[in-house]
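Re: the request from the purification team.
They wanted to know what the chain is likely to look like in 3D before they choose a buffer screen. I agreed to run a prediction and write the result into the notebook, where they can find it.
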Amino acid sequence: QVQLVESGGGLVQAGGSLRLSCAASGSIFSINAMGWFRQAPGKEREFVVAIRWSGGTTYYTDSVKGRFTISKDNAKNTVFLQLNSLKPEDTAVYYCAASSSLYSSSTFNYYYSQSRRYDYWGQGTQVTVSS
């Protein structure tokens, strides 16, 4: 089992920044990738970004490229998501997720962008961007 705890959400004006954190505990050895997803009111949960736990392979959804940056500190079992140039449409609950599945580099983007590939989820943290 893996436990995930997110933090760092809040209220920010458009153009502002936030830094989300996701601390993992438990069976860390079973993690192959971490992802961030978000869900806005009345909408389905959508993929934001994924990162391979061992190594630096990342994949961003187009709408956040150049504005969001994922990073990790393996020593602290923590993944970070830096959110810059925030827009009102970024308002959502942001969820951290961990996947035990291992996919090749050629299929990384395809599989890790799917929420069903993730085995563990955090409780979510609210990000609200005002206009």
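For the purification team: Helices lie at 108-112.
Please add any questions underneath this entry.
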